[in-house]
Amino acid sequence: MNQEHLLEVRNLTTAFRIQGNLFPAVRGIDLHLDRNETLALVGESGCGKSITALSIMRLIPQPPGEIVSGEVFMKGIDLLTLPEERMRKIRGNKMAMIFQEPMTSLNPVLTVGFQIMEALIYHQDVTNVKAKELAIEIMNQVKIPSASRRFKDYPHQFSGGQRQRVMIAMALACRPEIILADEPTTALDVTIQAQILYLLAELKREYSMAMIFITHNLGIVASIADRVAVMYGGEIVEVAPVGDLFEKPRHPYTEMLLRAVPRVDLNIEKLSYIPGQVPSIDRMPPGCHYAPRCDLRMELCDRQDADLVPLPGEPAHRVRCWIRGDSREIQDKP
Fold first, then answer.
1. Distance (Å, whole) CA 291 – CA 71
2. Region 46-61: what's the mean pLDDT?
């Protein structure tokens, strides 16, 4: 374990039971997060991004899910070995999550003010009066208009963008050191999306937080991330600083994702797309999981999955690919 990292995930594998058999949804995940850093987890729906975040938070429903192996260190403490009572003290306090869909994540029969207050009362040991004061303060910080008046309103009385701000307020109420944002802009229009991204970046600077930002939209990654981890088939296939990833992607899947991003500066008659679809966890192909959709596929790709290795001379840029990784590894294989 590297003591310098705020969060370090090592060899994390989470599986789900289907008809009596256990199938990995994420496998062998290795990643780290430093203080004041934003790591973007990107990939198509079904790649394992949300399962990775839920595993870190220990929110996987059991059954049918199960964290099979791995370690999740936060400031030297392995979260996976903690008793549930101690984990509750960390979850929502030191580490918080902004969930994907605010309308289904917020309780429709409780006021938004009460839902923000709840974390403060549980974790900060404050009175109801003080919790209300702090809740209105954080509602103002996330720029909810007329916060003191809207404190007693219910989720259905807020627009989509305002509900997302309530979710952010709930996550930030206890000023956590780590935020896991699970596609917080998916259901929002472009204008509101830009406002939420700016708000997250502003609050991250103000609170000196680290953030894992989960998205399938590479178009917003460049504006918010420091590093990017690309996921496919439950594995990380490429990790790089955000500039390197956009300038010289190495994994064929990353290349295809970037080609599929619409460009306003180019006159393109036909949009690129990736043929096929992400395989389900109970039908994962042997070898490289991306091989059936890859134009560079060779016989070795069908037999054996490559390791996530650093590129020669670029330790911060790692790729899981027999062809685009270190070619010396291919020479060692039978």
1. 29
2. 93
b (16+ CB within 10 A) / e for 79-110: bbebeeeebeebbbbbbbbbbbbbeebbeeee
The answer, yes or no, to whether residue 259 has pLDDT greater than 80, is yes
For residues 317 and 315, give the distance between their C-alpha atoms in angstroms, rounded to a whole number.
5
Predicted pLDDT of residue 135:
92
Q: How far apart are CA 72 and CA 58, in angstroms?
A: 10
Residues with Cβ within 8 Å of residue 197, at least 6 apart in sequence: 185, 220, 223, 224
Query: If one looks up domain 7-94+177-272 in CATH, what number appears?
Result: 3.40.50.300
Q: Residues 238, 254: contact at Cβ < 8 Å?
A: yes
Domain ranges in the chain with CATH number 3.40.50.300 = 7-94+177-272
Amino acid at 174: C
Count CB-CB contacts under 10 A for residue 156: 9
How does pLDDT run across 200-223, given as a tens digit for each residue?
Answer: 888 888 888 899 999 888 878 888
DSSP 157: G
- Distance from CA of residue 300 to its chain's centroid? 31
Question: Roughly what angle, to the nearest 10 degrees, separates helices 128-141 and 112-124?
Answer: 120
Question: Which segment of 81-85, 151-155, 172-176 scores lowest on mean pLDDT?
Answer: 172-176
What is the torsion angle, in degrees rounded to the nearest 10, for the CA atoms of residue 148, residue 153, residue 159 and residue 160? 100
DSSP structure class, residue 229: E
With 0.85 as the threshold, say if the pTM is over it. yes
CA gap 306, 285 in Å, rounded? 14
Distance CA(229)–CA(319), nearest Å, equals 10
- Longest Cα separation, the chain: 70
pLDDT digit string (tens) for 39-52?
A: 999 998 889 999 99
